[in-house]
């Protein structure tokens, strides 16, 4: 339950991403009310979207991509500022095939950053069978997956991504930051479960 850290009597699940600002649901544990309290989320210029996806996190500051709706250019424009990582690691199981040479999918990272309103960075990736459930693993098992080599058999493997949430950009507007990666994970889970109309 993504709202497990939020008091039940606030009914924040029913209010998530409904377009109405509910102050009682603004805490990170209540998933920031689906960011409904942002006065103006803005939009990424349609002509910039593909460019911003393709150039996300490439270590070159693209001013046209340096905004929340455009994914903050993967923090490229914050190179002179010390990282402000959310505590913990955001673990994501994707259907994308694992790559022995390393995982690089700027479109996926860009989309996650747009949803969270702050960038994510790949820390590591590991292969995982597509039919396994991420919630079947405890933290020590997940940590050991990082040290295993890629399997040589022909089983269809998907990717387990270990991401860091970079709070440098959202620190400009504290009400959008997730201090803990678990809160960001709950926010993403709620978004995929409910698909609120206010989300792209």
Automatic annotation (TrEMBL):
One of its GO terms (biological process) is Notch signaling pathway. Keywords: Disulfide bond, Glycoprotein, Membrane, Repeat, Transmembrane, Transmembrane helix. One of its GO terms (cellular component) is membrane. It is found in: Endomembrane system. Its main location: membrane. Pfam families: NODP, Notch. Residues 6-43, 44-87 form the LNR domain. It is a single-pass type I membrane protein. It comes from the Eukaryota. SMART domains: NL. Gene3D superfamilies: 3.30.300.320, 3.30.70.3310. This is LNR domain-containing protein. It comes from Tetraodon nigroviridis. The lineage of its organism: Eukaryota, Metazoa, Chordata, Craniata, Vertebrata.
């Amino acid at each position: 339950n993504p709202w497990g850290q939020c008091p039940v009597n606030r009914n924040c699940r029913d209010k998530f991403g409904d377009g109405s600002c509910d102050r009682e649901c603004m805490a990170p544990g209540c998933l920031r009310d689906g960011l409904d309290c942002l006065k103006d989320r803005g939009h990424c210029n349609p002509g910039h979207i593909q460019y911003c996806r393709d150039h996300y996190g490439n270590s070159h500051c693209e001013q046209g991509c340096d905004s929340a709706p455009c994914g903050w250019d993967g923090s490229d424009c914050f190179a002179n500022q010390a990282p402000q990582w959310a505590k913990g690691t955001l673990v994501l199981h994707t259907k994308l095939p694992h790559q022995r040479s390393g995982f690089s999918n700027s479109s996926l990272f860009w989309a996650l950053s747009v949803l969270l309103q702050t960038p994510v960075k790949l820390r590591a990736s590991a292969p995982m069978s597509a039919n396994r459930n991420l919630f079947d693993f405890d933290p020590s098992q997940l940590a050991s997956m990082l040290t295993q080599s890629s399997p040589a058999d022909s089983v269809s493997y998907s990717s387990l991504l270990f991401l860091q949430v970079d709070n440098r950009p959202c620190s400009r507007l504290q009400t959008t930051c997730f201090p803990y990666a678990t809160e960001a994970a709950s926010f993403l889970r709620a978004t995929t479960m409910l698909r609120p109309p206010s989300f792209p």
